[in-house]
Amino acid sequence: MRTRATELFGIEYPIFAFSHCRDVVAAVSRAGGMGVLGALYFSPEELELELKWIDEHVGGKPYGVDVVMPAKYEGAELGDAEEMLGKLQGMIPAEHRKFLDDLLAEHGVEPSTETAHRALLGWTDQTARPQVEVALRHPIALLASALGPPPADVVAEAHEKGVKVAGLASNARHARKQTDVGVDIIVAQGTEAGGHTGDVSTMVLIPEVVDAVGDETIVLAAGGIGRGRQMAAGLALGADGVWTGSIWLTVEEADTPERAMPKLLAATSRDTVRSRAWTGKPARFLKTAWTDAWESENSPGTLPMPMQFMLIADALPRIARSGDGELVTFPVGQIVGSMNQVKSTSQVVYDLVEEFVESMERLNRITED
Amino acid sequence: MRTRATELFGIEYPIFAFSHCRDVVAAVSRAGGMGVLGALYFSPEELELELKWIDEHVGGKPYGVDVVMPAKYEGAELGDAEEMLGKLQGMIPAEHRKFLDDLLAEHGVEPSTETAHRALLGWTDQTARPQVEVALRHPIALLASALGPPPADVVAEAHEKGVKVAGLASNARHARKQTDVGVDIIVAQGTEAGGHTGDVSTMVLIPEVVDAVGDETIVLAAGGIGRGRQMAAGLALGADGVWTGSIWLTVEEADTPERAMPKLLAATSRDTVRSRAWTGKPARFLKTAWTDAWESENSPGTLPMPMQFMLIADALPRIARSGDGELVTFPVGQIVGSMNQVKSTSQVVYDLVEEFVESMERLNRITED
């Protein structure tokens, strides 16, 4: 296959795979696509170890790193990371802490033994910059930025090192903001996607973004893409490749939490919800008692980014290991309905390509004279 | 182009066009697609006149009729149409009537001069059956049913007359319910569509439905399809054709209300909302003061189908012709963002086909060796 995306990176298939798991990232790149490691949850030291591992296991193939540098969040003006975190902790209302404690108790989750706020990593400019510095010391091919255009100096630094920059956008206006600061690749992500999403569907969004950014910019289609037919659809809409995420949560190599895995495998496409209950911004998750509770009448409402995640961060590992399991949720898109079987990462890549080829053959039969 | 849908109906392009306007229906069929008249707002006598006109203007090409026979609604057990309407009118709470009157007054809409409930046509089995009887006396090729599987006897009667039956479905389970009663064609409609919609996007929904209904059933892709690239994407996802609706609201032949037209032309893909404020079931509309008001804190909430529409039916023509215009809304999908120019119906058909061909050429360049 040959698109501007495959040519730019010298990859076989225009399949980009976002994952927080280094094994998946390396396996996708080795299989002919391009893995992109989500750096969000790693400290700079941890990220260094992850990237070193990938460098050793990716077989010389290109890979990328994704950081979160939101354009808007509480605390942007509150000083450096340490200072900001302290001040933000003090701003979390007692009502919210009580609601969370009661919710956890109701579901039998073990109580907290410490006050952890180290878990806030990468949700802010202050905390993401050290991740970028680590990433750019490695031979990465792509630096991706979620939640708004990356700072101009970050784009410039990446470009100096020959690293391409991608930005996620959920509408045409945001896409143009990204190209204005020199982003090379727009990941146009429809509302059906997992994690942070807008409200426009992939079907409607991709042609709009392709037309809005013009011929100089590569567009990848994201949201609802997990099968070869969807890959063909994404390219038919005008994209030069597809950006996938959810489908890598249920591969053999994935480090998805043990109690989330069976829920993901059992869920239908109707079992997700866009909710602010994790990060403070609308993001698509598995609909569980967690998302229900924050939407309920008793809910104090969610806090703005990054305070919502600061509030809950300490509870997440406890929810993952204790209690009745009903609060366990996970960021995932509507494609979760097709994720019913655990396969190897390379098999998922090959299945995507095989069904893509079948879809192309069918399309050509439709149009042949 | 050749799909099972074009072969079944002997049409040139697998483009199905839903419209309440007879001129659009006839023009799409004459241009090589297939027009489908929405019968909802016509009395049996009016529908007879509309179909007679189409018979005379469609040039012998096939066309269809779409009725609404919801599987679930208030009043199903309340007797015949006349009796049911009277009883349901009495069940509308005074609080809702007052909220509506205040809202209309606030926006300068002229007061009511009559109590009209004739506008409730076709939202129920009782009121839709006379429409079906009229439709089946005409040489229609397709009878489509929105909001759940049509009654088995209606399917049987259509089949006896050689008329194919289509059913709209917004998830795979509903699609199977339709095929269980003998529906020939599933219109699988994503959440981005205008009018009544589910919550799963077209990108995710189409492969699910295609796989769920098996090879015997033709699937049409609906929701977010208004351009040739989206048509290509719909077929790539496994559909045998596309079902379009919104894009026919802004063609030259359309009888779209005068004050709605400029709003449709100006709207972006982000200016729609799924709301119960029109029919009582979730349907996608232009987001205006009307949809905002019914979602606001002061709202008494919406009534179940068909009572919500009975409550508001009398006000709609007054909103359309008087007041500040802010309450004017219209059912439309997210594709409204691409509807920026008034063109003839035939031009829209040709543009769809032309961009589809371009998209196919691009896909083939991507895959050529």
Task: Tell me what you see in this structure.
The structure is a homodimer of 369-residue chains. The model of chain A has no long low-confidence stretch (mean pLDDT 93). Chain A contains 15 helices and 11 strands. In chain A, helix 10 packs across helix 15. The first copy, chain A, has 2 domains: 4-73 and 123-251, Aldolase class I (TIM Barrel), CATH 3.20.20; 81-120 and 257-321, no CATH class. In chain A, the strands form 2 sheets. In chain A, strands 1-2-3-4-5-6-8-9 form an 8-stranded parallel beta barrel, surrounded by 6 helices. By secondary structure, chain A is an alpha/beta fold. Chains A and B meet through helix 9, helix 10 and helix 15 of A and helix 9, helix 10 and helix 15 of B.
Short summary of the structure?
Chain A is α/β, with parallel strands linked by helices. Chain A is built from 15 helices and eleven strands. Chain A folds into two domains: 4-73 and 123-251, Alpha-Beta Barrel (TIM Barrel), CATH 3.20.20; 81-120 and 257-321, no CATH class.
